[in-house]
Amino acid sequence: MMEPRDIELRVNGEQRRGRCEPRVTLVDFLRETLGLTGTHIGCEHGVCGACTVLLDGHSVRSCLMFAVQAEGADITTVEGLAQPGKMNDLQRAFQSHHALQCGFCTPGLLTTAQALLRDTPDPTEDEVRHAISGNICRCTGYQPIIAAILDTARGRLAGRK
Amino acid sequence: MKAAPFDHVAPASLEQALALLAERRDDAKIIAGGQSLVPMLALRLASPALLIDLNRIASLSGIRVLESGELSIGATTRQRTVERSDLVARANPLLAAAMPSIAHVQIRNRGSIGGSLAHADPAAELPAVCLACDATLVAQSRLGQREITAADFFRGMFETALAADEILIAIRYPAWPAGRRSAFIEVARRHGDFAICGIAATVDAGADGRVRDARIVAFGVTDRPVRLESAERALAGSRFDPHGGEAALAVAINSAARAATDGLKPRSDHHASSEYRLELAEVLTRRALTHALQGRVA
Q1: What pLDDT digit, counting tens, does each position of A122-146 carry?
Q2: Which element (helix H / strand E) includes A75?
Q3: What letter does residue A45 receive in the DSSP assignment?
Q4: Antiparallel, parallel or unpaired: β B50-53 and B28-31
Q5: Is residue A156 pLDDT above 90, yes or no?
Q6: Residue A60: its chain B contacts at CB < 8 A?
Q7: Nearest-5° angle of CA B292, CA B295, CA B296?
C-alpha cells in the first residue's frame, strides 16, 4: 500500500478532485473514485478499446495510464458527449443504425469516433475502419457502427445538429 | 489485472530524473507514454517500487532538423505527433511511412518514440527504421551523454545497450540523401497487431545510376531487427534508373528477395511458424523493393 495522492483534473468540463494510490489506473479512478461508470473496463491491458476517453482532446486508453499522470488534464468521457439525459447526433446515429447490441464497447467507440470526426470531418469508409480498428466489438460485426459514424459525418457537414 | 503497489514521481527536470534513477536504479522504472510498460505492470510481468515519469520534462519532447541536416526527435515525443509531422514526412519518409503501422491511434496518441525504442520489442516498427537509417540514439546519465548507433543499441529481445542509470533522451536520423528510395511493409494478423514479419528498406544510387547502398531490415522474425545483408549485396550495382532497364531491375529485385533468407533463423511462436516467417521475409523483401524502386505494388 502506497500513500494515496490528491488528484485534481477537469472531467467533462467540471473541476474534479479525488484521492487514490499511484497504481490506480485512470479508468478505475473515473469509475470508482469519481463515480463515472460510463467508461467501461474490458481487457485492462490496452487491447480492447472499451475504456477509451479523450485526454486533452486526444483519444487514449484510460487503462494504460495512471490517475496520478492525469493531474491537471482535461478528460472527456462518454458522459460528457451530451447533456445528462440527452444524446448527441453521434449517439442518436448509433441508436438508429443499431450500432450496438450489448453496449459494452459503445463508450469507447463513441469517444474514438468523436475525436475522429473532429480531426477528419469528412472521413472515407476506409479512414473510419482504421480509426476504430483499436476498438473491439463482439456483437455487431462493425458494419452498423461504420454506417453510424459516416452518417453522423454527413449530417454534421450538412449543418444538421 | 491491477499493478502491484509502486510510488510515482514526475520530476520537472532531466537532472532530477537522472539523480533519482542513479539512486534507485535497482527498483525504479522509467515511464513515458507507458503503452508497453503499463500492460506489463497490469500483468505483473514487472513490479518496480518506483516509476520515474518523464512526462513533465518539456525539453525531452520535440521534432527539429539540425544544422547538420539530421532529424532530431526528443524521446518523449508522442508517436502520433511524429506521424502527423510535415517535418518528419520531408526529412525521413521511411519513418513517416512506418508510423501508421504502430498499434492503434489511441496507443499512438499516448505512446512515445523513445519508449518504443527503449522497450525494444523485436516485432516493433521503430527499431527497424532506426537500423535501416543508421540512427543515433542519445543516452544520458548523471555522468554525461553517450551516443549509441542503432546497430549497437538493440541487443536482443527487450534488451538494449542502455545502462541502468541511463535515460534515452533523443534519436537522431542522418540527413536523407537526395534520390533515396524507401519502403516500409509488414504483415500482422490484424491491423495494429505486432508484425509477424516486416521489412524496412532504403536504396541509394550512385552518380552512375546504379545501386550504391541498400539497407534491407527485417523485424518480427528474430530477437531484434536484423539487416538482410545477402539481399543487400544482391541488389548492389544493379541499374537504378527504371527507364534504363526495367527487366534487369526486376531480376535484381528477385535475386535480392531469394537471398533475403540467407542465414536467417526466425523464431516460431503462437503467431507463426519459423517456415512461414522465412516465406514472408522473401515475399516482403520483393514487395518492399518493388515498391521502393519501381513505385508500384508487387
Answers
A1: 999 999 999 999 999 999 999 999 9
A2: strand A74-76
A3: S
A4: parallel
A5: yes
A6: 106, 109-110
A7: 110
Distances in Å between the alpha carbon of B171 and those of B16, B110, B147, B200?
Answer: 21, 18, 9, 17
Query: What is the pLDDT averaged over residues B122-146?
Result: 97
Radius of gyration of chain B (CA): 20
Q: Calculate what percentage of chain B has a pLDDT beyond 90.
A: 87
Strands (E) located in chain B: 7-9, 28-31, 50-53, 63-65, 71-74, 136-141, 144-149, 154-156, 159-160, 167-173, 181-187, 197-205, 211-219, 226-227
Distance CA B252, CA A8 (A): 61
B228-276 pLDDT, tens digit each: 999 999 998 887 665 656 788 889 999 999 999 999 999 999 999 999 9
Distance from CA of A63 to the nearest CA of B (A): 8
Give how far Cα A85 sits from Cα of A80, A81, A82, A91, A156, Å: 11, 11, 8, 12, 21
> How close, in Å, is residue A7 to chain B by CA atoms?
13
How far, in Å, CA of B3 to CA of A21, rounded?
A: 11
Q: What grid cell was written down for B31? A: 515511464
